[in-house]
Every structure is written in C-alpha cells, then in structure tokens.
Design goal:
mainly alpha; 2 strands; about 5% strand
Amino acid sequence: MKNKSEHKEKEPELWSEGSYAQSINTSDPDYEERMKYFQQKPDEVKDHNCKKCDTPIGKHNLYWHEGMCNDCFFDHYNM
C-alpha cells in the first residue's frame, strides 16, 4: 500500500504546472453561444485571429483559449 506522500507525487494536481481551468457562468448572456464551440470541430471556420501571433483561429479558440491559437495558448500556460 502506498503512503499518502508517494501517491501525491505521482498524480498531478488540478493547479499544477501545465493545468488550466476556466470557470463557466451559466448566467452569462454569451453562455449558450460559447457552449456551441466547447468542442472544436475539424471544419470550424477560422474567422478570427490569435491575439498574440495573428494566426487565424475559430470560435473554439476565441472562447476557450483566451483568443489565442493552440501554439500560443499552450506556450503561455507551459502545457
């Protein structure tokens, strides 16, 4: 049986480096619109640009990656 410290070292915690969580407010007037794009579709129209590098992004990245392309988002959060 593992002791508590051995178990904790092997499993990443929610707030450990490389983790990201975004709160969702169901009272937000944009909630329904944002939820439509929670899961990124492969054919998603990329009609916005990354706020860091100007690469075209879709609404999934606009709403769920803080307006950044995947590369910039993952780099920003060390993921």
